[in-house]
Write a structure and sequence with these properties.
It is built from 9 helices and 12 strands. A hairpin with a 2-residue loop joins strand 2 and strand 3. Helices cover 37% and strands 29% of the residues. A 12-stranded mixed β-sheet has the order 1-2-3-4-5-12-6-11-10-9-8-7, with helices on both faces. By secondary structure, the protein is α+β, with helices and mostly antiparallel strands.
């Protein structure tokens, strides 16, 4: 049953096939929502929120993941405006809005008056992909992390997150939850690092993955080791490992102002395929 005049309603398990077909129109850009749908089967108790769908003539035309992260899926400006109208009826429960630039901008313009001032907005974030062998030699010392690495890995993850987001993941008593997330990625084989004499000097993780694509997060090198080529060789190793064992396409998105990171990814062979935007609370 449609719940608004714009044809928006929460999706359920019976909509999974239609949602996967929708996400499959651009399976790399939509990897996060695709992954969430596959792992939760669109059950709200597992989603920790809802997946909204917008229908036209009985066909699913766009969607919107609404959990801790709000992520439009294949949403035009009109779709994003319809999702914003629905979002205003429930108030803000999300900590981040992220997705393709136009959809995020239109959505934010629709909810800004009612959702309060964001902590930060990032309107130009190149979305990058690689589906070939890396263009630089992979670092042979990059490997999957294990529990024995936690003493070095966890502080590096906290440092990366704080540097990138501007807020510690341990703030407000979040240390246990964040440590659990780091451990979860490690247990899945999605955490990679290089160590020199026991010290972590490069790391990266797979944030989410489907049979089509994997999205990388948390790329980090300690400040005193930057400029040595560790990031390029390390990312090349991650690309090689992930493409061989996780998914055929590797993606990520990066802040436009982060010239060193963008240069590193270009050197490895990543190419821009879309523009993302992020609103953080």
């Amino acid at each position: 049953m449609l719940t608004t005049r714009h044809g928006v309603r929460p999706l359920a398990t019976g909509d999974l096939e239609a949602f996967l077909a929708l996400a499959g129109q651009d399976p790399v850009v939509n990897v996060f929502a695709d992954y969430r749908a596959r792992t939760t089967h669109l059950e709200p108790r597992w989603l920790g929120g809802e997946m909204w769908g917008r229908f036209e003539g009985g066909e699913l035309r766009s969607a919107c993941h609404v959990g801790a992260n709000l992520v439009p899926v294949q949403a035009t400006a009109e779709d994003a405006a319809a999702f914003a109208e629905r979002a205003l009826t429930r108030g803000r429960t999300v900590s981040t809005i992220v997705g393709t630039q136009e959809a995020v901008e239109v959505f934010w313009n629709g909810v800004a008056a009612g959702w309060g001032k964001p902590r930060e907005t990032r309107w130009n974030q190149p979305h990058l992909e690689i589906d070939t062998a890396p263009a630089v030699t992979p670092d042979p010392l990059v490997r999957r992390t294990t529990r024995n690495d936690m003493a070095e890995l966890y502080p590096a993850c906290v440092a990366m997150y704080t540097e990138e987001v501007g807020l510690s993941p341990e703030a407000g008593g979040g240390a246990d939850l964040y440590r659990a997330r780091v451990t979860q990625l490690m247990n899945r084989g999605w955490s990679f690092a290089r160590f020199d004499d026991g010290r972590l000097v490069f790391k990266a993780e797979v944030a989410c993955a489907t049979p089509h694509a994997a999205q990388i997060q948390g790329v980090w090198v300690p400040r005193d080791r930057r400029g040595e080529g560790l990031a390029a060789a390390g990312m090349a190793a991650v690309v090689e490992l992930v493409r061989a064992e996780v998914a055929p396409v590797v993606s990520l998105y990066v802040n436009e102002w982060n010239e060193p990171a963008r240069g590193t990814y270009a050197k490895v062979g990543f190419r821009e395929t879309a523009r993302f935007a992020t609103v953080m609370f």
